[in-house]
Specification:
7 helices, two-stranded antiparallel sheet, 7-stranded parallel sheet
Length: about 240
């Protein structure tokens, strides 16, 4: 049995969570009314029929859950989802960083992919405000850390022993394919239009590129980030179902 603690308070136990996963999946399929688009309606029956557990959000049980979450997390509060993922569902040592120089719309997409692949933390380097539209509110389920300066970011990740690996097709970069990524690392993405800044590229332990076989000079930075994260997961990630 594993106990989850979030924000200094006891949230739930993993053994209990697994049981609730099975119950929610069954009720989602047979009883809970689906709603147009995405999600499920209110929990069937009166309040006395609601499932028991601190992970459940009374508002969602009463009004329905239209969030973009897996069925196993239906009706859970945002805090409970994040607490569970922090405890058993995320790769231990993969983090992602993005340079935010021009309010790039791809940052939201990168955050969403990071959540899908279980990344625990995303760093925004540069401007504090970032374009959240593509994140589909997935930034609520992981930690987003802001660093105004590159040195501040480097001090933060360096103090925890993370290798800084840049992803960009710049001169001197090496192919990602066949490269063994460090198990403890932060993958750094640049701006869509300009890539990694010169200062950030120099700060990286190495810069890797994704080999391309078509005519385009570069791929979308959100797509490149997804490929790089997946490359790390293939090498080091654990099966979330067996966590």
């Amino acid at each position: 049995m594993c106990t989850l603690v979030h924000g200094g308070r006891l949230a739930l136990t993993v053994s209990r969570v697994v049981c609730m996963f099975e119950g929610v999946a069954e009720i989602d399929k047979n009883e809970v009314r689906s709603v147009p688009g995405s999600g499920v309606g209110p929990w069937p029956g009166a309040e006395e029929n609601w499932p028991q557990g601190d992970q459940y959000d009374p508002v969602l049980l009463r009004e329905g859950d239209t969030r973009n979450v897996e069925d196993r997390f239906r009706y859970w509060s945002n805090e409970a989802i994040k607490g569970f993922l922090d405890s058993v569902g995320r790769p231990d040592w993969l983090e992602v960083a993005v340079q935010n120089l021009g309010h790039d719309f791809n940052i939201g997409s990168i955050v969403r992919t990071a959540n899908c692949l279980g990344v625990r933390r995303v760093h925004i380097v540069g401007r504090r405000r970032w374009n959240r539209r593509g994140a589909m509110v997935t930034d609520r389920y992981l930690e987003v850390v802001h660093h105004r300066e590159i040195d501040e970011f480097l001090d933060h990740v360096g103090s925890r022993g993370l290798h800084v690996i840049g992803i960009d097709n710049i001169e001197g970069s090496r192919p990602l394919e066949g490269r063994e990524l460090p198990d403890k690392c932060v993958l750094v993405m640049g701006e869509e239009s300009t890539g990694l800044s010169e200062d950030m590229a120099r700060a990286c332990e190495s810069v890797l590129h994704i080999t391309q076989y078509g005519s385009s000079r570069s791929m979308n930075v959100g797509h490149a980030a997804a490929i790089a994260m997946w490359a790390w997961v293939i090498q080091h990630g654990s099966d979330p179902e067996g966590a």
